[in-house]
Specification:
The complex is a heterodimer. By secondary structure, chain A is an alpha/beta fold. Chain A has a domain of 177 residues: Rossmann fold, CATH 3.40.50. Chain B has a domain of 144 residues: Rossmann fold. In chain B, helix 14 links the parallel strand 7 and strand 8. In chain B, helix 7 runs parallel beside helix 9 and helix 13 packs across helix 14. The chains are: A alpha/beta, B alpha/beta. Chains A and B meet through helix 8, helix 9, helix 17 and helix 18 of A and helix 5, helix 6 and helix 14 of B.
């Protein structure tokens, strides 16, 4: 028994404690903004956070809040409350949970701090715009929409012009909301830190190319919080340096995220927040490790378009050409690229009732992968926050059957 | 009226109609997906715009591409395409609106190779100068790309002629709707439905003159006949409506439909295009100023203001929300639209539908209860 605990302890990521400390301090800071005179902006996960950091505005992420609701297993209750308010049960569970929290300060942290402004970028979905419209009416605060035209087969010159123009509108919006001039020197520094943070995040994810992978997608779901919420700060850079050092140490010592890594899998779509532990243990029990995922890697996918010397100028392209804002065939191409890079044996796709732009097209991606690579794929029907859409027995049977397929291919 | 009979014939088999029309006229047929598809540009290119709604066939082939939580409009249209029922299309145009249509475009492009495919990546917010410029840019690009696909150059003159035809259709439908609002008993709701629907399917030149004739006849009838005892005036709100039966059920329940804000209804034809301005700019301006589809943004209360104004204008006693299941943009707006109506003292009820209506009896009882209450 003692040996087993020791084994478990060895496998634990030590940096986790630091992460919890940072996130707690961040939420205290945000929740007390009213007393400290700082402004709070609610922003979407794919939104341009760096100008907020440069303006000393505290960014708050309702989507991160949604994930916390899910992880605390409060999703079904809050989603039910939203339904009682008239919101259909078919709508995004992040949105439903957040909309239900607002009037009652509900959820795991007693509600999010009241926003002074809302910043919504529709590069991830059309849902965020509807959700932010609801909250803008509720809180009676200004809403800025960064409209990033969808890139079915490319990014047109006129779309680029349109989004670039909006970056200037965004700055004007912030100047008005904050009552001060935008600091163009400060954004250069914030931009530099943002890029550095994204690079470090990519390097951390890339350590999973090793066998065994020192980090799994389940770990990445957790450590992702900083690159989303505090991108562009020194704190994030320092934290990811620590995490990267720990991952490299694990690689050199041969410590894997799962004890006996036999099957390497790639995860597609958002996590099933209320079942991460169950899924993680389920896969580990089959010696399977989720070594990569399309979700957490989205926060460094823009690196190919970023210009460090012209951060603001390259922002338009970085925000428009993200993973979810591209055609299904291009998504399939990127999934295959990741499958090769991380050398995976199978792909697990979460068909997520809450996220139509992420989920519609998965069947075609599955087919393209099968045709081009012959890699087995598993489709799990669930929802990221609303646990009423999770059927444990069915999913367990499907995972077991999938592992059997992998076993057959390996032997 | 013989025009109405003509409409019914077309709606009985829209695909059959358009195939015959194509053979007779030699025009290319372009499938379109929503009320943001610029029919004027398609007409100006010498082609025929044909709105796709999904025929309501059982979903079998589309199951392999779209999950069950996708709306019946999107799944139904793909089912038709994969089943070969749309093989007569020369091309298809996807204006960017909701997340589901956006992915349908990708899936269609990858799986329905026979016809050409154009994305019209419109702005989502419509209330800024930048968005207006982008809208104009996108429509210019579309003009060029469509011309290329059809091997034609679209001239300003052709665009103006197409704008004039579309304006005639819009003006005639506006007159018919106005009359239906004032004297609902003159025209059955199912006829109103058939007229608008046929306008999105049939030869537009024919539609223009035929709708003008209907409007003139109705106007004549309204002056010659005394007003009947008014029933309870109902306004319909929602997106796509593929169910002519609901008009009859509402009428039998003691109500009378006096208007709608459907994208297959008044939103399709509201707002005329300036015939003198630069044609592409003028087309863009109509889309920018018209009341929005909930997948677009034009202020925080654009749709509620519009709905309350229309309900008042039409002296509606109640509003029935007619929402397609899994249509996120409309579902997000429902609570605030209902609240705005509540504040204006207009009662409402919600009806969520898939491609088929729920059992007739059940619907009848709900409508009767609602009509009785208001």
């Amino acid at each position: 028994m003692a040996e087993k605990d020791e084994e478990k302890e060895k496998r634990k990521i030590k940096t986790v404690a630091k992460m919890k400390e940072i996130m707690t301090a961040y939420y205290i800071d945000a929740k007390t903004a009213g007393q400290t005179g700082k402004k709070v902006a609610w922003i979407t996960s794919g939104g341009p956070v760096e100008p907020l950091i440069a303006m000393d505005v505290i960014p708050v992420y309702p989507e991160n809040h949604g994930a916390m609701v899910g992880a605390s297993k409060m999703g079904a209750d809050l989603c039910g409350k939203a339904e009682a308010m008239g919101y259909s049960s078919d709508l995004c569970s992040y949105a439903r949970a957040d909309i239900a929290c607002a009037p009652i300060n509900g959820g795991p942290i007693g509600g999010l701090p009241r926003p002074d402004m809302l910043v919504c970028c529709n590069n991830i979905c059309g849902t965020v715009m509807k959700w932010y419209e609801v909250q803008a009416r509720f809180f009676k605060v200004p809403l800025f929409i960064l409209d990033t035209p969808f890139c079915h087969t490319g990014f047109s010159a006129e779309a680029k012009r349109y989004v670039k123009g909006q970056i200037n509108e965004y700055i004007a919006f912030l100047e008005k909301a904050c009552g001060k001039r935008f600091d163009y020197d400060r954004i250069k520094e914030v931009g530099r830190l943002s890029v550095q943070g994204q690079r470090l995040w990519q390097e951390i994810l890339d350590t999973a190319m090793n066998r065994p992978a020192p980090i799994s997608a389940f770990d990445a779901f957790f450590h992702l919080a900083l690159i989303v919420t505090l991108r562009g700060t020194q704190q994030t850079v320092d934290y990811y340096k620590m995490l990267l050092a720990e991952m490299r140490q694990r690689v050199s010592e041969g410590i894997g995220a799962v004890p006996r890594e036999k099957y390497r899998l790639l995860w597609d779509n958002l996590p099933v927040w209320y079942r991460t532990k169950w899924l993680s243990e389920k896969f580990a029990s089959h010696d399977a490790c989720l070594v990569a995922d399309t979700y957490t890697s989205a926060w460094c996918g823009a690196l190919r378009y970023v210009d460090e010397n012209d951060f603001l100028g390259s922002m338009a392209e970085c925000h428009t050409r993200i993973y979810l804002n591209i055609g299904v065939d291009e998504m399939a191409r990127q999934v295959i690229e990741m499958a090769d890079k991380y050398d995976v044996d199978g792909i697990v796709m979460h068909s997520n009732r809450s996220c139509k732009p992420y989920s519609f097209g998965q069947y075609d991606i599955q087919r393209i992968i099968r045709e081009q690579k012959g890699i087995p794929t598993l489709m799990i029907e669930a929802d990221m926050v609303d646990e009423r859409s999770f059927s444990e027995g069915q999913i367990e049977t499907r995972i077991d059957a999938f592992i059997e397929v992998l076993k057959g291919k390996k032997s | 009226m013989k025009q109405i009979e003509e409409c019914y014939q077309i709606l009985k088999d829209p695909n059959g109609y358009v195939k015959r029309f194509k053979a007779e006229s030699g025009r290319k047929v372009i499938g379109t997906f929503c009320s943001y598809a610029p029919e004027e540009i398609i007409l100006a290119a010498g082609a025929h715009p044909f709105r796709l709604f999904g025929s309501g066939e059982k979903i079998r082939l589309a199951e392999a591409h779209l999950q069950s939580y996708c709306c019946s409009l999107v799944r139904g249209a793909l089912e038709d395409a994969l089943g070969g029922r749309l093989a007569f299309l020369d091309g298809v145009v996807f204006p960017h609106t909701c997340d589901s249509i956006q992915r349908l475009s990708d899936i269609w492009r990858l799986n329905v190779p026979a016809c050409f495919h154009l994305d019209l990546i419109l702005p989502v917010k419509l209330d800024t100068d930048g968005a207006r410029q982008y809208m104009i840019d996108v429509l210019r690009r579309f003009r060029g790309e469509l011309g290329e696909k059809l091997s034609v150059t679209i001239s300003d003159e052709e665009l103006r002629a197409a704008i004039r035809i579309c304006n005639r259709i819009r003006a005639a439908l506006t007159r018919i709707y106005a009359l239906k609002g004032e004297r609902p008993e003159i025209l059955k709701g199912s006829v109103l439905y058939a007229l608008v629907r046929a306008a999105m399917i049939m030869d537009r030149t024919r539609a223009a003159s035929f709708l003008e004739e209907v409007a003139a006849e109705m106007e004549k009838e309204s002056t010659s006949k005394a007003a009947a005892w008014p029933k309870k005036r109902i306004f319909l709100s929602g997106g796509v409506c593929n169910h002519p039966d609901i008009y009859t059920i509402i009428e039998e329940a003691g109500g009378e439909v006096v208007g709608d804000d459907f994208c297959t209804g008044s939103r399709y034809f509201s707002g005329l295009i300036d015939e003198k301005a630069d044609p592409v700019t003028a087309i863009a301006d109509r889309y920018l100023e018209r009341v929005v589809c909930p997948a677009k943004h034009r202020g925080l209360t654009n749709r509620a203001d519009h709905l309350v104004r229309l309900a008042r204008e039409k002296q509606a006693r109640g509003v029935i929300f007619f929402l397609l299941k899994f249509c996120d943009p409309h579902a997000f707006d429902y609570p605030y639209l209902k609240e705005a109506l509540d504040q204006a003292g207009v009662p409402s009820m919600l009806l969520e539908v898939e491609d088929r209506l729920s059992a007739d009896g059940q619907l009848r009882t709900r409508f009767e209860a609602f009509v009785e209450m208001i």
